[in-house]
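Minutes, project check-in
Item: structure for the 331-residue chain
Input as provided by the requester:
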Amino acid sequence: MNRICIVFAALTLFSCTIYDVNVEPGEEITIEKTSFSFDDRNFNFFTEYRISSGDQLDVLFSIQSWEKEVEYKVSIGDTLNIQFINAPQYNQEQKIRPDGRVSLPFIGEVEVAGNSTAKIKSKLMDLYAKVFKNPEIMVLVPDYLSQIRELKVDLHTASRGLSRLVTVRPDGYTTFPMVGEFEVGGRTIAEVSTELNLRYAEISSSLQADLFLEQHSGSVFYALGEVNKLGAHTLSRPISLLEAVSLAEGHTDKADIEEIIIFRRHQKEMIATRVNMADMLNVKDGASMFYIYKDDIVYIPESGSSQMAKISQRVADIILFRGWNARVGVN
């Protein structure tokens, strides 16, 4: 029986881990930040939010009708007035179709959207030189900026006024009024805003847009293993592993916090690394604060001593309650 007591005493001591904090009273130690090797080592994610699928973006339009157009380029929906000076019977007034073209006598369909009136005139002069001798053509735009006018009417009658909400699709793309879709996932608000305004400037210099994050998709990380609250936990910003475990309501008594495994998706692969949280708590030399990102999986395994404790408990059940011979049981 003494041998059994020694075994259980050893198992009990093995299952108890004592952490000594290596900071003297009043001492201040700077803890380095770290994460996976492929992440930004400057940790700019603290100041720059990157758009992800499911986010809602608010596009606030500013239409400056007094702004002088440097060179107006016609667009879909604009009206073109094409006059033949020496043959007025062929004069045309047409709206530019959704395919960006108009249909003209003798020469058929001509693509005009995205061009200035001067460029359209030059193009028509070349085409009609094969039809008329010394053609003289004038190109006017009596009805222009039709898309902007329609947008103005739409915005002024909408409940949100001069703004529009757009949602980022699972593929990282979203669709903006007038300019269509482009990829925004993984980019900052400033980066997308710059590209968006460049595209609107191609339509008209009087059209500008400010971009805001209306609602983020609700980033989460996942806590598994020996934590008190398993599952997904809301993540509004990158947080340290200590904060992540705290959000999971702490680890259980069986947890091995020296062998925590972090999983993170990188491109098309899942990368894993081992983190010793005990070193963080001890503030050991060389210890660093590991940071968790959205969609990370934090797995805290059961300690080997806890597994040994289970085995020893089973042995104790057999020895103490099933009437086995103690010496045989130990052997």
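Outcome recorded: The two ends are 12 Å apart (CA to CA).
No further action items on this chain.
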